[in-house]
């Protein structure tokens, strides 16, 4: 199944929050969390493919998230750059203690312009997060066509209704 949500975090400072987010989303979404999702194969290729496949990219903003961002091979830098270049739905998750770094790096500046959510381990946070997820809006429910016996998704039915909204049979 295609990854819907990718969780990006720095292990030092963001691991517990990544685990919490994974636990909150895994039952309703296909979530990529490296510690749970990675299997055999090349680490870098698996991470990059998961980002290319995802719809939503969660960036956990711990207070040290950008400390090594300028270093060659930094995974946060690689992941964020790939997500932005491929126009993923970036959702910053602000942890307590995070301070906007006012960095000169263009990638960081771009990421900090996105609307995000402050992490709280309560029901309101989970509801708000789900409202930010584009994957949530793309969920489809199968609908049976009684006369032909095949299935259409709710999205397809709505698209057909919209396309034929003004249709009139000729007199």
Report on the structure:
This protein is an alpha/beta fold. The protein has helices at residues 11-25, 34-37, 43-53, 75-85, 106-112, 123-132, 134-137, 154-163, and strands at residues 5-8, 31-32, 56-61, 89-94, 117-118, 142-144, 151-153. The longest helix has 15 residues, at 11-25. The radius of gyration is 20 Å and the shape is globular.
Q: Nutshell version of this structure?
A:
26% of the residues are buried. The chain is an alpha/beta fold.
**Low-pLDDT segments, ≥5 res:** 138-152
Query: How would you characterize the largest beta sheet?
Result: 5 strands, parallel
Give the helices and strands as they follow along the chain. EHEHHEHEHEHHEEH
Overall pLDDT level: 80
Portion in beta strands? 15-25%
- What Rg is obtained from the alpha carbons, in whole angstroms? 20 Å
Keywords:
171 residues; alpha/beta; globular; single chain; 8 helices; five-stranded parallel sheet; 15% strand; two-stranded antiparallel sheet
Protein topology:
Blueprint: E1 5-8, H1 11-25, E2 31-32, H2 34-37, H3 43-53, E3 56-61, H4 75-85, E4 89-94, H5 106-112, E5 117-118, H6 123-132, H7 134-137, E6 142-144, E7 151-153, H8 154-163
Parallel strand pairs: 1-2, 1-3, 3-4, 4-5
Antiparallel strand pairs: 6-7
């Amino acid at each position: 199944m295609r990854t819907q949500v990718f969780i990006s975090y720095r292990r030092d400072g963001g691991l517990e929050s990544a685990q919490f987010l994974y636990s909150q989303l895994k039952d309703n979404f296909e979530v990529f969390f490296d510690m749970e999702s990675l299997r055999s194969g090349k680490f870098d290729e698996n991470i990059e493919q998961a980002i290319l496949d995802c719809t939503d990219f969660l960036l956990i903003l711990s207070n040290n998230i950008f400390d090594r961002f300028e270093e060659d091979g930094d995974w946060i830098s690689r992941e964020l750059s790939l997500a932005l270049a491929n126009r993923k739905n970036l959702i910053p998750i602000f942890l307590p203690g995070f301070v906007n770094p006012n960095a000169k790096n263009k990638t960081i500046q771009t990421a900090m312009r996105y609307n995000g959510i402050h992490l709280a381990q309560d029901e309101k946070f989970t509801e708000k997060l789900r409202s930010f997820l584009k994957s949530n809006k793309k969920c489809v429910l199968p609908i049976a066509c009684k006369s032909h016996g095949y299935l259409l998704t709710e999205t397809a039915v709505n698209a057909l209704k919209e396309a034929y909204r003004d249709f009139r049979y000729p007199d």
